[in-house]
Amino acid sequence: MNVQPDSVLVRARNNYKIGDYDAARKILEPYLAKNDEDVQAHVLLGSVLAQQRQERAAAREFSKAVEYDQQNVEAYNNLGIVYRRLNRLSDAVQAVRSAIALDNSRADLHYNLANLYKVAGDIDEAVAEYKKAVKLDPAFLPAYNNLGNLLAGQGDHSGAREIFERGLYYDPNHPGLHYNVGLAQEREGDLEGAAAAFERALRSRPGWVNALNNRGVVLERLERLGEALGAYNEILRIDPENAVAHNNAATIQIKRGEHAAAVNHLREAVRIDPHYEHAASNLVRTLRGRTDREDAPEILREVVDAFKDRSDFRLALAESLSDQGRLSEAEEELNTLLEQKADDPDALHLLGMVFFRAGREEEARELFERLEQTTPDHHAHRLELARHLVDAERYEEAAQELKQYLEHVPDDPNGHLLRADILIARGRGDRAVSLLQKLRGEYPDNGSVLSHLARAHRAQGNRDDALASAEELISLQGNRASSEDLSAINESLAIYEDIVARYESDYNEAWQKNLEKLGRLAGEAEESEAQEAREKMEMDEFAGLEEESVPIIDFSEMQFTLEEEEEPEEDELEEQPDWEALSAHEHYPSLLRMAEEERGDRQPLSQAAGPSSPPRYPPPEYPGASPWNNESEPHYQQPPSPPAGQQPQPQPQAPPQPQPQAPPQPQPQAPPQPQPQAPPQAPPQTYNIYPPYPPSPQQPPPQPATASAGPPE
Fold first, then answer.
1. DSSP string covering 487-555
2. Whole-number Å distance between alpha carbons of 87 and 83
3. Helix %, strand %, coil % for the chain, to 5?
4. Cα angle 475-478-481, degrees, rounded to a multiple of 5
5. Of all helices (H) and strands (E), which one includes residue 65?
6. What Cα–Cα distance (Å) separates residue 107 from each residue in 136, 138, 530, 559, 679?
7. What are the two backbone dihedrals, phi and then psi, of residue 292, each rounded to the nearest 5 degrees?
């Protein structure tokens, strides 16, 4: 029984359409063993092999097709695709240019050539080809997208936004273009506009994790912390194992003072992705210095075990152990660190303090001498040692250490405040008052100075001056506090009232304890401001992370026969990344499966608009000469047309072969555009093996559709 070529190709093509590539191969390979000159069968088998990521085998099939039919545009085009995957960029460019030499009217071919130039770093040629693509087909959205990406990569965010908005004229609900508009507006500093653009992207594509993440980043920068946290919580409802969302939610909770919840999120992020270094860093920062968490050393030990090369993580663990009095364990961790970095100044400093607290003062001083020799500009150990000596009531020794410290760091107010403590303890309150009044003039917003001044006045018996300093301290805290600090202000007032009540009746202990507590509250307010600034930088870094964030979406790049999933781009800010990233850094988060996500979850325009429709972009207007006709722009030279009566000779050239009778091919009646698909199960859009070509510029913009556009039967 003879097998008809048409039936073979139909069955193979149907298997290709449903993604059963093995079945398609089982049909095509034995058929081609007997019908090697069937060009369309070679093209189809090459497409199947390319989908299975067998690029070399696919290249052989497309080359065979070109060998038998030197006029086959699709074979050249697809050969360029697989050559690009094989990193044979010059061969890929030659193949696609050969396709263009055969048919210069197709926008998709110019788009594919532009993508190759972009990968090769030839930005001017890429821009020129993208412009040719949209000139041939003004509704060809991938070209707007990638052209805008190129401009954004060159720092022209305003120009990129304009290009994306031109594309939105043809599809006002396109989520990817709204997303990219948001990125451009964020870079331009228009945070409100960026938040609205991400919201429009989400209206067209609900639950899109990348848009939710970037919206959260922008809302955080707008200080809309509740909404930002809501965006990250929405991601976690969709994907509870999203490590980036756990990390970013934690940064919001730290700013809101919700440290326990932040620690839980960060632990989850590290559990999900044990190599997520940004989340591990944030976990260490959150736990560092928190003596109220008895489990801090155990959590930090988990992080150290996962990141053995991070000496700063091990140092934080040693600090936590030391703070909890677990001195022998702290010593062990510090010795391990010093084996890795023999003269690490922070490790030597902390180990010296561990020895001092353990009563091994001689060993401590030997370490401090070593520290001074290896790092002459490190003096912080003297201030900390002086504090410990004051606690031990060894005031003379403390004064000597502090004197040496202030000789090197004369402008540190903390050193002068400790000097005032020593003067008060030694009965020299008048000198302490003079010193503190001088500091008050130099540091008018330092609550610790006011607290020390009130204590010094009390030591001198100056009740009115002491109470005046306490009142000023409360006023300072109240002026600086936000609505979130009301509970702390009320606590300060209660302490002040207690000071007044106890001043006469309990002249010593109660006064001292309450005043110290009031000063500590003011100091916490100052530290909160400083910490907020640090956390702001950290949040920017996260968004820049991991924002772990690729900043621009690229469509699936090679169209019409093969569906190409493009590798995520490196984020220049993470720099990306940290843009880390987000890319995202990662200033922006990484965007995975861009081709599928871009086309797979689109809604019909009638359903996607939501409660309010997105802005309608006007048709592009080009005052004067069209920007697409700028003769000064660089462009490639098309291969010369052959003389009349001769066939063009594209590369690679094969010796003439007898041509088989090709099966009749379906002829396109109306050229379709890439169609958005219905969410979520529809397979990503592919283009026809037997092409209809894209529409001409004279056709109206395409209407949205929900059906998958596969090869016609």
1. HHHHHHHHHHHHHHHHHHHSTTHHHHHHHHHHHHHHHHHHHHHHHHHHHHHHHHHHHS----B--S---
2. 6
3. 65, 0, 35
4. 150
5. helix 55-68
6. 6, 9, 55, 10, 27
7. -85, -5
Among 390, 372, 389, 391, which residue's Cα sits nearest to residue 380?
372
Residue 620: how many CB atoms within 10 A of its CB?
18
- Token output for 439: 């500091």
Collapse the DSSP code of 256 into the 3-class scheme (helix H, G, I; strand E, B; otherwise coil) and give the result: coil
Question: 414 with 527: CB under 8 angstroms?
Answer: no
Report the SS3 class of residue 549: strand
**One-letter amino acid of 352:** G
Cβ count within 10 A of residue 205: 25
Q: Which residues contact 189 (CB under 8 A, 6 or more apart)?
A: none
Locate 547 and state its tokens.
Answer: 């924002």
Q: How far does the chain reach from its first CA to its final CA, in angstroms?
A: 24
In 3D space, the residue among 301, 380, 395 whose CA is nearest the CA of residue 345 turns out to be: 380
pTM of the model: 0.66
- Give the start-end residues of each E strand in 301-371: none
Strand, coil or helix: what is 587?
strand
- Quote the CA–CA distance of 649 and 639 in Å, as a whole number: 10
pLDDT along the chain (713 residues), means of 10: 72 93 95 94 94 94 95 94 94 95 94 93 93 94 92 92 94 94 94 96 94 94 94 96 94 91 95 94 91 92 94 96 95 94 93 94 93 92 92 93 93 93 90 92 85 83 80 68 47 56 55 59 51 39 26 31 35 25 27 30 33 48 38 34 42 41 41 38 31 34 34 28
